[in-house]
Design a protein that fits this description.
The complex is a heterodimer of chains A (108) and B (248).
Chain A lengths: L15 H27 L4 H22 L7 H32 L1
Helix pairs in contact in A: 1-2
Chain B lengths: L1 H7 L17 H30 L20 H4 L14 H25 L3 H31 L5 E2 L5 E2 L12 H33 L2 H5 L3 H26 L1
Antiparallel strand pairs in B: 1-2
Helix pairs in contact in B: 2-6, 2-8, 4-5, 4-8, 5-6, 6-8
Classes of the chains: A mainly alpha (108), B mainly alpha (248).
Chain lengths: 108, 248
């Protein structure tokens, strides 16, 4: 190969602590996912099982965004500008839950 | 005299744009805001799905008594119970769990690629990004099989409202439940599949540039971080789709 490709920067050695952290977070996400599936089969369908499954989903979403996407390490303004619009969606869901009957009745 | 010197001075004051309050590079910031807008699109699809599902009656009874009918929303563990090579065997959600596992695993390899990039470790980036691309392709292949099975249906089929037996699904009719069921399934999982596909294309582009040494010459591997953000987002969306489409 040409010497052009041989330009390599110094490789910083691996930090086993960081790798362990990644593996630990992955293990937590895996456990939450397995728990979700197990609960979906064990609990009878209904409000309680749905609440548990959605709670586990939100926990998984937290670990993915905060740890894997490193949103936790960003500055507060950036975290806020990503999360506050999502909070409006959550509020929208709440409104739909309270008033959804009238929308669905008008749609069909 | 003092006037001329201020002209040549770089604009570094707060009101000259001389600071970056979010302490993130332009590319990363734009990726975050793209992800936010994309998340809103997915929320729109999922909320539409929720409204449509809420409109249809749910099946009241145990899973073992369930039969396909146009009258109520089907149970996901009965619709998605097939596994390649085990035709006719009832394996509820096993294949979907495998798909979830593959995508989550490719997310883990992506973090490892980003971590290697932070250490300027070209070999590490190439190795882990390669596994990530492979995981994405495997996920898409699984999805293609699942769609194919969903479209072709089961030998027993299901009864439509006019009394005829229909096998599989199209956008307007399906054997599993109300017509809207297959339509939302195709839209939501299809839109997610499109994102997986574009993520693979992006990852291949980054992989190629890592191999030819673009990032070493540039002095940083930030591109891996950016495509990593997108890939994690794709995994995050699957967490939502998996929960609302297959578990609830």
């Amino acid at each position: 190969m040409s010497d052009f490709n041989d330009v390599t920067a110094d490789v910083i050695p691996k930090d086993p602590e960081k790798i362990n952290k990644i593996l630990k977070v992955s293990a937590i996400i895996a456990v939450l996912a397995i728990l979700q599936v197990v609960l979906a089969f064990l609990l009878p369908r209904g409000g309680f099982s749905y609440t548990m499954i959605v709670f586990l989903m939100v926990a998984k979403a937290y670990y993915i965004t905060a740890e894997l996407m490193h949103l936790k390490n960003e500055v507060k303004v950036l975290i806020g500008s990503i999360l506050i619009p999502i909070l409006f969606i959550v509020f929208f869901l709440f409104v739909l839950y309270m008033e959804g009957n009238s929308i669905v009745a008008k749609l069909y | 005299m003092s006037n001329t010197s201020t002209v040549t001075k770089p604009k570094m004051s707060v009101w000259d744009g001389g600071n970056s309050p979010l302490k993130a590079s332009y590319g990363k910031l734009m990726m975050w805001f793209f992800i936010l807008s994309d998340a809103l699109t997915f929320f729109a699809l999922l909320i539409a799905y929720g409204l449509i599902r809420y409109k249809h009656p749910a099946f009241e009874g145990s899973t073992s008594e369930f039969v396909f009918s146009q009258e109520y929303w089907p149970l996901p563990e009965v619709v998605f119970n097939a596994f390649p090579g085990f035709e006719g065997v009832h394996l509820p959600l096993l294949f979907v769990v495998l798909m979830t596992f593959i995508l989550a695993l490719s997310s883990v390899t992506m973090v490892l690629a980003v971590e290697a990039g932070n250490r300027m470790d070209k070999d590490g980036v190439v190795k882990w990004l390669g596994w990530t691309i492979l995981g994405g392709v495997a996920f898409l292949a699984c999805m293609a099989w699942e769609w194919s099975h969903f479209i072709h249906g089961t030998p027993e089929g299901g009864m439509l409202l006019d009394g005829s037996i229909f096998h599989g699904a199209t956008l307007s009719v399906n054997q599993y439940g109300p017509p809207a069921y297959a339509a939302v399934f195709f839209f939501v999982t299809g839109f997610h599949g499109l994102h997986v596909f574009s993520g693979i294309v992006l990852n291949i582009y980054v992989f190629y540039n890592a191999v030819i040494g673009t990032f070493d010459r540039r002095g940083h591997y930030e591109m891996v971080e950016k495509s990593g953000l997108y890939w994690h987002f794709v995994d995050l969306v699957w967490v939502f789709v998996f929960t609302f489409f297959y578990l609830i």
